[in-house]
Structure prediction request, 249 residues.
Amino acid sequence: MRLRLLVLLCTTLTATSLSAQEWATTCHASSSYDVTLKPSSILFDRPSPAPFHVEMQQGTLRTDGTAVPLNAEQQDRLTLFERELRALAPRVRTVAQHGLDLAVRALKEETRGMSLGADTRAELDRRLASHAATFKQRIAASNSTHDWQSDVIDQYANQIAADVLPLLANDLGQQALDAAMRGDLQTAAALRDQATGLASGLRPRLEQRMQALQPQIAALCPAITRLAELQQGVRGSNGQPLKLLHIGQ
Prediction:
């Protein structure tokens, strides 16, 4: 099962992401649903199996368009579920913002060891700041995990990589050419190798640096576990437990 609830935490600026498996390892949590925070209700949806749509609103519940009768305890559980999920959303956004800042800082630190020209370094900083600002606006405006499917994340990340990596490669390539023209073939070869392996070499190091975000993600685990507990005892119109979230080893 894919973890989609809170999947926006997976976003970084460099095509790295916290995978569903890592989420499962950190919080032992998974879900087959997407979630959308509407102004007056919360919607969970998935392509299969039924129920395909689960919507809750101030202690009421509808699954696949059918109202579900609830006793007082179940109503209280859903009211708390909705309240606590909405309270969790800004915390998630904060961690996502920190993730972006960490990714930008990590990329800058990784490029410090490269002999980049001052103009290239300034342009790199400008482009990263622009992309980070755009992502932060998307995070602030997003109320649905549909905005952060893996293919969407990959698309954004590829756009950023296409914007940033050639800038670095071109600078290193020009330096290699200049070194070769000076007769410094060893330096030229080293710079060419660095430019050629730029993308493949940067990614694993950046992924390692992004592990620094783990404690902030782990701090959200109790709230996720609490949501899973609140759903207990609530069934859909088909008589089956909701299972919006699954917690397990």
